[in-house]
Structures
1.
Amino acid sequence: MAEVRLTGLTKSYGSVHALRGVDLEVDDGEFFVLFGPSAAGKTTTLRVIAGLEKPDAGTLMVDGIDLAGTPVKRRDMAMVFQSFALYPHLTTFQNLAYPLREMKMRRAEIDSRVRETAELLRITHTLDRRPASLSGGEQQRLAIGRAIIRRPRLFLFDEPLTNLDAKLRHDMRAEFKRLHRELGTTTIYATPDQLEALSIGERIAVIQHGQITQVDTPDRLYAKPVDRHVASLIGDPPINLVKGTLKLGGNTGPAIELPFMELDGNPWRERLQALDAGTELLVGIRPHDLSLVEENGDGVPATIEITEPQGDITILDLSAAGVPLRMVVAEATGARYTAGDSVRIALAGADTRLFLSDSGTMVA
Amino acid sequence: MARRRREIGKAGWGRTAFSTVISFIYFFPVLWIILTAFKSHTDALSTPPKFIFTPTLDNFVSVFARAYERGGAAVDTHFDLFFFNSIFIAGASVGVALIIGTIAAYGFSRWPLRGNETYLFIILTTRMLPPIIVIIPIFIMFRLSGLSGSYIGIILLYAAFNLPFTIWMMKSFFDEIPREVEDAARMDGSSEMKIFFRICLPQVKAGIAATAVFGLILTWNEFLFALLLTGRDTRTVPVAMAQTIGGDIGVRWGLLAAIETLFLIPVVFVTFLLQNQLLRGVTFGTIRR
């Protein structure tokens, strides 16, 4: 069990700034996800926590104790690496036993712990084999096994599912949740996959260019992204960002001029009135907020560029007054259209968000 | 008539026969030596050469003991000692080079110095000169330090010769193994010493085997320095062989061939023993894992 506090962590490799001041608070027993694109600083953050890298500045506290001078082996943490980093010359049994032998555990106890862990992860049949002869899923479970067998106070998972195929990934996500429920150990889990982040994390930190931009629960990240970058990272298909200009002083209240329509600004009246007229805004429209309207309706004209059937739903790539838009329709509806068709679309603004065009910060 | 299909990648008879001929041409000198070792003195000298003859083991016997003059008593030639010298000197020098070289290579790979590449280059430059150029200074050094004719002297010299190659070879093997595995061991509580011995060394076993074989062959066959720097008791087989040439009945080709045949055995044996490791060592890192 552990409670982790990072403050102002920075780390550079030559001229590359991997971390530019990372602040994080992970609560005891929490399943915390570090989410961000590749090279955002996820791995570096985990390696600093583990003690494998020394930060240039900043502090790392675990359970209120500064770990700056604590060597890796005394930190009592376990890590699952993206490459699994199994010991290639040792069998599954020896891989699992390795951390226990380092703890100078008695042979009989090692034996029973290894068997118990192998049982839990369903790799008992591989105990006498070397990693090279295991399947991807088995290797991955072995990597997890080697981490949990020691019962450390903190788990660090570095993109553990990235090297697996889609089906296996799905199964393993459930596995991680089950393990966390059973062991209750504080976990920091890095992933570049938003689906993984949203489905597995109790709280998620979005990390970009070596900085944490937002820490929130999955639903709040989706509903209230702090800026356009977070908005475009969360949600599949990604949010549509359309440039618009703020109009104030009309009879009907504030409005935003988009290339293909004028958007009523009244839902965000107070926030918008604090801005200058003519402010450039980015309007974030979730694909599911767009809908098709039947002929003669009052929607906006658009042309279908591409249809992408996904099985249960179909993604339509549209062009409205030259602006590319993505929307989601039911598969049956999507099947009625082909590229080149003209349609009319309407916007239900429930999840629409406004961002400042220059800084990308959320306005409303 | 349809051509018979064969598996993709399997050579046909034509290619196999062609390869066999080429291999035979390459192998012929070795074969000739082995045949000659079993010939009597007259058979060995006959023109045209004889391929069918009555084999004899006389040459092998006289490697170790022979009469220097017709009718004289058989005298010990000390070739058992020379074979021991060759094996001991080659084994010890390659062993020393491997121990120092592997540790050094690990250092160069994992804890690079400022200007790491320069150091590695300088290490390699020691092998850029033809050996003959440095032989006089080395000879003088051996004389002054009293190392001439001693086991330790020639072993150290050969170890020094093998060291650059060992370091370069082993560094490339260490570079190939992923560092995350070491990080994993670090997190599992291992000390740096343990990481080297328990995690890294086992992973480069194939590399050690390959490096050892190359070093052994090189050292085994060395002649020039052995000629100048070994003494009566530390003489290696190549030097002793050269001194066998000559005598009252001209060059005894059969005897020479017998020595060479015996001389081949340890190399063939070691290479055969390590061949699986060797192949893996040589092709190491050529396939993405």
2.
Amino acid sequence: MDRNQLTKWFKAPTKMAHKYSLHAVYFCTGCGVIEIPPTITARWDAERFGVIPAATPRHANLFLITGYVSVKTLRAVIRTYEQMPEPKFTVGFGSCPINGGMYWDSYNTINQLDKYIPIDGWIAGCMPRPEAIFVAVTHLWTLIDKDMADGYKRYRKHYAQYRANQEQVLGELEWPPLFQSEREG
Amino acid sequence: MRILWLVLSPLIALAVGLFFLGLSRRVMARIHWRYGPPLYQPLIEIFRYFTQKGSSHGVLFGLGIVLSLAGSIVVILFLPFGGICSMSGSGGMLVVLYMMLLAPLGIALSGGEAANPNASIGISRKLMLALGYELPFLLIVLAIMTHYDTISLVDIVSAQRETASAFASFPLVLSGIAYLLILPAMLGMRPFEVVHAPQEISSGPIAEYSGPYLGLVTIQHALTTFIGISLFVNLVWGGAGNPFVFFLKMLVVLAFGLFVNAAFPRLRVEQAVRYLWRWPTLIAFVGLILVVTLGR
Amino acid sequence: MNDSPMNGQLKKKLDSVFRDIETDVSDDGRLTIHATKESVLTVLSLLKDEGWSFLQLVSCVDWIKQDEIEIVYVLSSYVGVEDGPDAKGEPYAKGEPDAKRESILLKTRLPRSEPSVLTAIHVFANAEPYEREIHELFGVHFEGHPRLTPLFLDREYKIPPFRKDFDTEQYVKDVFDSVPPIDEES
């Protein structure tokens, strides 16, 4: 943790500020969310690294998708993701968002989340331990340092593709496209 | 010199308020048996908010926060901070009472513009809560102003300097106790955390703020915390001769608020109003009658 | 345990009242009633009057080989059953044997092609969400149900997804796997 190195703060203050105030959305999907309470409370205390849950997507910049995503949840996931202010980071938690996990042949659960929203990193496992969240956070710090946590930029760039995929599964979306110009172009 | 203080006192208030925010998170963490974030965590967060891309919900959305910030800054100019008071007019207390309403009003205006149902619930709760604590607060202020026969905050502070605090001069004891009882409500801490209640109405009025707007709201929150605590120290704990002692007194009051915050769960808004209108109002009213009948 | 007194009594009563039902008591004393589609509601209300006043759940089984769909009502009681409806809902007193607190299964079979049965809402109001769910997942129509609208699912399925002939693997291949991955190069 380089939070106390003043030179880094002078060199890249924005990156440092984003690294050490990762606020995660209160968004509970699937079973992985049961790992979040011990992570943010006394046992593991994520707040010492600046990771706290934020009550609304507008305050947050980290989106932990904790478990399987059903078609109905996908709608909410996309809406929540689009409401978060940029820059924002997404982490898929558990094996279900990666490839479907144990719900690989479910009639109602999407298999690969990164076809619908951009993901910056994955935590594999079913279930990953709370320590895995810390490992993911430190990896995310490295990615932010190297400008590689660019999911929100990819979303903007390939928005037409993402939107087409979302519409393919969800049918007609009831909200207008987030980026109008890219969709036409 | 006076111009210098006019510029400096909001900055000092901001620094102290942000320090209080960081300290309160740290203290709460220690009470929870955690380590907690570093003291400068609010600064990191505010910096992050200002570098994010916010989304506006109309002109009033931005103007409301500015109004609220302006109200808070004007109040700070009228509050003595341990011997330093930038604007020590004779009408000090009345201006403070009047201007203190601007801060919640501005947030209500801009939060209402966002048209989020959670924000509307939060605003109505805030107004209900304000209705609850304004009544005892006005009774307390009336008792104090009657007792010292002045409406100037500076005069109140210097009159209290003789007895060290209002608690020490007999007729004001009850007013002081009543103020202590409504202090968590004025600071918006638990058990009166109904306005923001993140688990319940997702941060209430500030649900729709993002990016720089949220940064301004956090600054406003820091200023409000400063105002609430420093008003208490000035009105019933005799202010202080120099800023350092004043700061120490504020720390003690903050610690009191934090312990109450850590120990109690959240009340419902009607329970909160019922509490505020019963015991603190009763005590403040008896205190006012005592002050009026006994005189100085 | 076989043929506990209370179930024996109830079995006798049911057998004497209804002609078109079959009753049998399993080894652990649980009463199972097989009723026809027409008599389900009557049996349900009779059981309710007998004190079995709590509908635990409504379930559904797809018997694909027999080309039938089975609706299962699971009933139990909070109060002493033997005392009947006049007991004013008194809970068990201390020391009373718990053996009375058993559940009854009421089963009915419907044709698989167009399954339809009268709704049980008028007897047990809490049947509403169960019936909605069964309608959604098994495609059983409940006559007289006020709102058979989608409850859990977000999309339309040609075959209701809990039926045995619904091929989930093929469905996932067709719907979710056909979504193309994002082409980052373009």
